[in-house]
Amino acid sequence: MTTSFTMDEDYRPYHPNPRKPSYTPPHGAVDAHCHVFGPGDTFPYAPERKYTPCDAPKEQLFALRDFLGFDKNVIVQASCHGRDNAALVDALRSSSGKAKGVAVVRYDITDDELRELDAAGVRGVRFNFVKRLVDSTPRENYLRVAEKIARLGWHIVVYFEAPELESLTPFLTSLPGTIVVDHMGRPDIAKGVDDAEFRRFVRLLEEHENIWVKVTCPERLTVQGPPYDDVVPFQRMLTERFSDRVLWGTDWPHPNMTWIVPDDGALVDLIPRFARTPELQQKLLVDNPVRLYWEDRR
Predict the structure, then answer these.
(1) pLDDT one-digit tens code per residue, 251-295
(2) What is the CATH number of the domain that holds 170?
(3) Cα–Cα distance for residue pair 263/190, rounded to 1 Å
(4) For the Amidohydrolase-related domain, which residue ranges apply (predicted)?
């Protein structure tokens, strides 16, 4: 039985006609942060969701990947699908090995269910602390999940906003294995790279070599808008200082964008502005994501 869904009236769909990038990514490049949504009639959106997006199915994601010049995807479970990873798993199984995934799971998930996700290509779980997107989850539930996935060699992706970092740090540093922070920890771009909150985040990376960072989503963080000149210094600092622990992705189909519908081709063309050498681009787009997602870390 299928269920019909109607996109929220104020939801802004992804760019219908992105430009072909001028920048050519290195061979084997990975879009290490993107999503699939629905289609809702086949993979229903979660009853507890905070938004109802436009459908953005696997076929469109893979076509965009090829158009932008990338070879692989890392597909991250988004909050609109809750803990039902069916759309994610379907995309992974349809990718001919060119996609891996990050799931959102119940704290009481069984080892058999985890092994099934692992076989499909899931390599991590996401903990979302952004209150406007998800309901609060007890920390002990996250710890239960962390202990279970450690046996599989998976990592943990965390999503939070900069003001929450100070209170979250003791918890984050208690987690086992590799931790990946989404979207640079969502710094306040208007305050600049010398702001105390961003310096706190940089110190966290300096002091904990198991913590990685995605230099993603300038369109979410910018104050000025395209071409995102105000975000580049943040991306550049992190890419150059932590070159072995950075990842990049489009964030397609860009859920909950309120004032910018980003052109994915323009986002790709931003890469050489902050990863300024071929060596940095190779690490950012190939070596790091392949090491984290395609190599056996058990």
Answers:
(1) 999 999 988 999 999 999 999 999 999 999 999 999 999 999 999
(2) 3.20.20.140
(3) 22
(4) 30-293
Burial 25-37 (b: 16+ CB within 10 A, else e): bbeebbbbbbbbb
Report the distance separating Cα 13 and Cα 128, nearest Å.
22
Amino acid at 65: R
Is residue 18 included in any domain, yes or no? no
Domains contained in the chain, number: 1
Helix (H) or strand (E) holding 218: helix 218-221
Do the domain assignments include residue 277?
yes
Q: Kindly tell me the sign of the dihedral angle through the C-alpha atoms of 195, 200, 201, 202.
A: positive
2 in a structural domain? no
How far apart, in whole angstroms, are the C-alpha atoms of residue 145 and residue 175? Answer: 10
Q: Is residue 22 part of a domain?
A: no
Q: Annotate 246-290 with DSSP letters as a single string.
A: EE----TT-TT-SS----HHHHHHTHHHHS-SHHHHHIIIIIHHH
**pLDDT digit string, tens, across residues 63-75:** 999 999 999 999 9
Domain span including residue 158: 30-293
